[in-house]
From TrEMBL:
Keyword list, A-Z: Ubl conjugation pathway
Full protein name: Ubiquitin-fold modifier-conjugating enzyme 1
Subunit comment: Interacts with UBA5 (via C-terminus). Interacts with UFL1. Interacts with UFM1.
Coiled coil: none
GO molecular function: UFM1 conjugating enzyme activity
Stored PANTHER family: UBIQUITIN-FOLD MODIFIER-CONJUGATING ENZYME 1
Active-site residues, as the UniProt record annotates them: C135
CDD domains xrefs: UBCc_UFC1 (cd11686)
Source organism of this protein record: Umbra pygmaea
GO biological process assignments: protein ufmylation
Biological role stated in the UniProt entry: E2-like enzyme which specifically catalyzes the second step in ufmylation. Accepts the ubiquitin-like modifier UFM1 from the E1 enzyme UBA5 and forms an intermediate with UFM1 via a thioester linkage. Ufmylation is involved in various processes, such as ribosome recycling, response to DNA damage, interferon response or reticulophagy (also called ER-phagy).
Family statement drawn from the similarity comment of this UniProt entry: Belongs to the ubiquitin-conjugating enzyme family. UFC1 subfamily.
Pfam families named among the record's database cross-references: UFC1
Length: 186
């Protein structure tokens, strides 16, 4: 299944923190349905129910964001819903910077949030772990932990990857660590 979505703007603060979220972010997140089934991939039948809730929440998030004209990622999963991959992008100075994204659902999900990786940015920022996994430890993971099992993948995108991109991509561009594909030949 392929999903299209967008994320709301975040504050210009160097480090995103949920308390610092602007009104648009709070509104967008409040419109994402909360999940009910506390189940991970090891729970065969309950996982199917949880996965259905995940898709419904992602679809709602997509619909809401499409109406706001803020398309910023495409996401799809394997048949089991345990491996997710796609593309995300960030618009900076009217130029689109596009990146591959991937993550696996942890066996302890939803108690443990997935670790989103942006492999091509691996080693370019201190806000990343080996393999291109983005750092969400300080702000997102405690928020996730307080909201188990209500938060799902739509929340991961809205409160995790989206704000990370909004902070890190402009910084990497300003440092010359990433260049727009049209500028790479020069």
């Amino acid at each position: 299944m392929c999903l299209f979505a967008s994320f709301p703007s975040v504050t210009s603060a160097r480090h995103f923190h949920p308390v610092m979220a602007d009104d648009a972010t709070r509104k967008a997140v409040s419109e994402i349905p909360l999940l009910k089934t506390n189940s991970g991939p090891r729970d065969k039948e309950l996982w199917v129910q949880r996965l259905r809730e995940e898709y419904l929440a992602l679809i709602k998030y997509v619909e809401n964001n499409k109406s706001a004209d803020n398309d910023w990622f495409r996401l799809e999963s394997n048949k089991e819903g345990t491996r997710w991959f796609g593309k995300c992008w960030y618009i900076h100075d009217l130029l689109k910077y596009e990146f591959d994204i991937e993550f696996d659902i942890p066996v302890t999900y939803p108690a443990t949030a997935p670790e989103v990786a942006v492999p091509e940015l691996d080693g370019k920022t201190a806000k990343m772990y080996r393999g291109g996994k983005i750092c969400l430890t300080d702000h997102f993971k405690p928020l996730w932990a307080r909201n188990v099992p209500k938060f799902g993948l739509a929340h991961l995108m809205a409160l995790g990857l989206g704000p990370w991109l909004a902070v890190e991509v402009p910084d990497l561009i300003s440092k010359g660590l990433i260049k727009h594909r049209e500028q790479q030949g020069s």
